[in-house]
Amino acid sequence: MTGGQIAGLIAAIAFLVLVVFIGVFLTKMVRTLGEVNQSIKTMTDDMDVIAKQTEDILANANTLLDDVNHKVATIDPVFKAAADLGTSVSDLNEATRELTGKVSSTAKKSVTSNLVARAGSAMFNAYRGRKSKD
Questions:
Q1: Total domain count for the chain?
Q2: Which InterPro entries does this one have (predicted)?
């Protein structure tokens, strides 16, 4: 065997080793891609199920929200009436305070003028009584 043939044999063996490694690599890569593909299919199926369940939940939530809105609209007049009643009670309390203040000030004036009148009458009677003794 000549040097060129030995170099050709070494190159052929190196090429064979390279082809074997590439073949093993490609085989493993195909297997991995198959597993990834299966995982993606499983995830897609799971996502479809989750999406369907989410749609059902959202539909139920919309129905519930419509029901709550209807009931709130039914109850709104009750709260309006309660607010009006609160305003009326507040107005009544204010009017009662004003009336109480007027009655109280009138009563104080009346008591004061009665005391002054009685004191004046008592003093006049005392003065007359003294004058008649003289």
A1: 1
A2: UPF0478
* 4 inside domain: no
In a domain, 33, yes or no: yes
Range of the domain at 66: 17-134
Q: What is the 8-class DSSP label of residue 73?
A: H
Query: What helix, strand, coil percent values describe the chain, rounded to 5?
Result: 100, 0, 0
pTM for this predicted structure? 0.43
Tell me the CA distances in angstroms from 23 to 8, 10, 11, 36, 55, one per residue in order.
22, 20, 18, 20, 47
Positions of the chain with pLDDT lower than 70, given as ranges: 107-117, 119-120, 123-134
Q: Which residue has the tokens 């607010």?
A: 83
Asked if residue 10 is part of any domain, the answer here is: no
In single-letter form, the type of residue at position 106 comes to T
